[in-house]
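Researcher: Here's a chain I'd like modeled. Treat it as a single chain, no partners, no ligands.
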Amino acid sequence: MPETPTFLVERLKVEGEKMRAFFAALSDDQWQKVVCTENAEMTAYVISLSDADLQKAGRHAFLGITTLAEMIKMVYRHNQIHYRDLRVALQK
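Model: Modeled as a single isolated chain. Structure tokens:
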């Protein structure tokens, strides 16, 4: 897969349009559904880990070799980015 600026720009456009189309097609009932239930499961998992568990290394698709703690941080940081994007979009 070529990672040229042109390729990446096209992927951003295509995926952005897919996302816009998906949200535009949602019904009022669908907007009311709870869709994020993984947080409770993730919280229960993380609270069960020891400090030593958090320092264990593994391979992340983008970070490469990193600790479990860093991978968990990526989960909530990823969500923070989406929340920020939603807040900005809703203020327009």
